[in-house]
Amino acid sequence: MVIAVDGPAASGKGTIAARLARTYGLPHLDTGLLYRAVGLKVLQDGGSLDDESAATEAARGLDATGLSDDARLTTGEAGEAASRVAGYPGVRAALLELQQAFAAQAGGAVLDGRDIGTVIAPDAPAKLFVTATPEVRATRRWKQLTARGIEISLEAMLADIQRRDDRDAGRGAAPMVQAEDAVLLDTTDMGIEAAFDAARRIVEAARAKHGL
Ligand code: CDP
Question: Closest Cα to atom 25, ligand 1: which residue?
């Protein structure tokens, strides 16, 4: 079974995807890490995020092993760089095959990102679009960062989230949009346990529907 989990920043999609993967014994790919790695590679090579061909080169040469252990990819800088390079069709094309191969593994997989249900795995039997209000998402991200000792105001965090939403939803290449057959999960008033329970019920309903 392939489970596609999409949604905006700090919606809870990553945690939900990781827990679904554990529950169903499936491999999990956080596709945001791929775009983060590409953005960071461009910066580390001294390139500009405005340079589509440099970003496409970085995406073509990406070594996708060990990304989930790389702490540099979790920074706000990497997230911002990711959303810049993610708008380039060349970058998205270079990362397509890797993600589709991951989704095609025997037994299935869980992938989370922005375009899993629409572009990467349009035939996935279980699709979730996880969201929450920008204010709640900004507060969650702000708490995570301040707990790590990173100083940022809530206002700046909200502006950052809104800028990223606009860029991700407004781009021409694979914009962030809920797939027609995805189930909307609004976690605004939910803690992680409630959100996960709701996500599992959505997956159970999809399994029953598809006889899985
Ligand atoms: O949760 P957060 O948005 O902070 O990070 P992420 O999920 O790691 O995604 C970082 C950026 O990568 C997003 O803002 C998107 O621009 C981009 N991305 C994408 O375009 N497509 C994906 N499948 C995953 C991430």
Answer: 32
